[in-house]
């Protein structure tokens, strides 16, 4: 069981129902300001308390009630992702506005061959399901981040990680996801490792974040989300 870790002030994160973490694929990690997720246990901010700032700051005030509505909506999105993506890991994190967002981590051992960026058939199957989830949740903006382990240098790792992120983005768009929904696609090389190892399959991954768009914030402020 891992210790719960709280974000600093300004991230305005949420109360969790348990600090226990179930390590396994297809598992939802964390819960938020929305309704309690029956039978789901978790911790704040994924494995190690670190979270990449996702999304641009949204102009205008976000009311406390709106934040709660967004938290409940993201609970639903996370639960659906965990149910439909047994080969991925689902975490609850916060975005740049201090709102709940959902991180889906696709293991590159499933997505890509070693040192490659071509999607496997299994990866395409999972990403087809994920594309359907994205289209059902069109008010979620999306950020895609590709990673490598540290076995090569940045001249190798950064372009490879970017190709992996672009491969995921291109496939999702090919499945009918709107270009405008995917807000950023980045290759971050061997930064933000999950494991402190030079050679690590866990570090060779693609992370996809679903977070509140300005339209979702507008609906939440109006009480229509």
Highlighted features:
single chain, 225 residues, alpha/beta, 60s Ribosomal Protein L30, Chain: A, 6-stranded mixed beta sheet, 5 helices, 6 strands, 32% helix, disordered N terminus
Short structural summary:
With 225 residues, the protein is α/β, with parallel strands linked by helices. The chain contains five helices and six strands, in the order E-H-E-E-H-H-E-H-E-E-H. Strand 2 and strand 3 (100-107) form a beta hairpin.
Overview of the molecule:
The chain is of the alpha/beta class and 225 residues long. The chain has a single domain, classed as OmpA-like domain (60s Ribosomal Protein L30, Chain: A), CATH 3.30.1330.60. It has a 6-stranded mixed beta sheet. β2 and β3 form a beta hairpin. The radius of gyration is 17 Å and the shape is globular. The N and C termini lie far apart (35 Å).
What is the count of structural domains?
1
**Stretches where pLDDT falls below 50 for ≥5 residues?**
1-25, 30-51
Judging from the principal axes of the Cα atoms, what is the shape? globular
- Please give the count of helices: 5
Helix content: 25-40%
CATH architecture: 2-Layer Sandwich
Structural class label: alpha/beta
* Residues in β-strands, percent: 15-25%
Instruction: Say how many strands there are.
Output: 6
Blueprint of the fold:
Layout: E1 28-29, H1 64-84, E2 88-94, E3 100-107, H2 108-111, H3 121-136, E4 140-146, H4 154-174, E5 182-187, E6 205-212, H5 214-222
Helix pairs in contact: 1-3, 1-5, 3-4
